[in-house]
Write a structure and sequence with these properties.
Elements lengths: L1 E6 L2 E4 L4 E9 L6 E7 L6 E7 L5 E3 L7 E6 L4 E6 L8 E8 L15 E2 L3 E6 L1
Parallel strand pairs: 2-11
Antiparallel strand pairs: 1-3, 3-8, 4-5, 4-9, 5-6, 7-8, 9-10, 9-11
C-alpha cells in the first residue's frame, strides 16, 4: 500500500503562485508514476500533470503547460506541483495520485492510478 497526503492549498488571486506538496509513504518503491488531478464542483476529475518516478519524464494537460511544473524529490518521497499565473478556472480540489502500472499511454486517466490522497482545495479569485 501507498499513502498519499497533499498540502499547500489555499485562496489566491488571479496571477498568483502556489505550490502543492504530496508526501508519499508506505511501499513507495512500487510506484511508477505520480500525478496530480483536479476536480471542480460539478465536473469530472481531470488530469493536470504527472511524472515518472524512474526517469522523471513529465506530462501536462494542455491548459497548464507553461504555468504549472511537476517535480519530485525521491529522497524525501515528495511530489510537488508549482502553479504560476493562476486563473479562476484553476479553482478545484487537487488530488495527488500514484500508480504501479507501467502503461503510460493511460497516464491521463484517473482509472490508471490506484492510490489517491484526500485532496487539497485551491481557490483562485478574479
Amino acid at each position: 500500500q501507498v499513502q498519499l497526503a497533499e498540502s499547500g492549498g489555499g485562496l489566491k488571486q488571479a496571477g498568483d503562485s502556489l505550490r502543492l506538496s504530496c508526501a508519499a509513504s508506505g511501499r513507495t518503491f512500487s510506484t511508477y508514476v505520480m500525478g496530480w488531478f483536479r476536480q471542480a464542483p460539478g465536473k469530472e476529475r481531470e488530469f493536470v500533470a504527472a511524472v515518472t518516478t524512474t526517469t522523471s519524464i513529465t506530462y501536462y494537460q494542455d491548459s497548464v503547460k507553461g504555468r504549472f511544473t511537476i517535480s519530485r524529490d525521491s529522497a524525501k518521497n515528495m511530489v510537488y506541483l508549482q502553479m504560476n499565473s493562476l486563473k479562476p478556472e484553476d479553482t478545484a480540489v487537487y488530488y495527488c495520485a500514484a500508480t504501479n502500472s507501467l502503461n503510460i499511454l493511460n497516464i491521463h486517466l484517473a482509472s490508471y492510478y490506484n492510490y489517491w490522497g484526500q485532496g487539497t482545495q485551491v481557490t483562485v479569485s478574479s
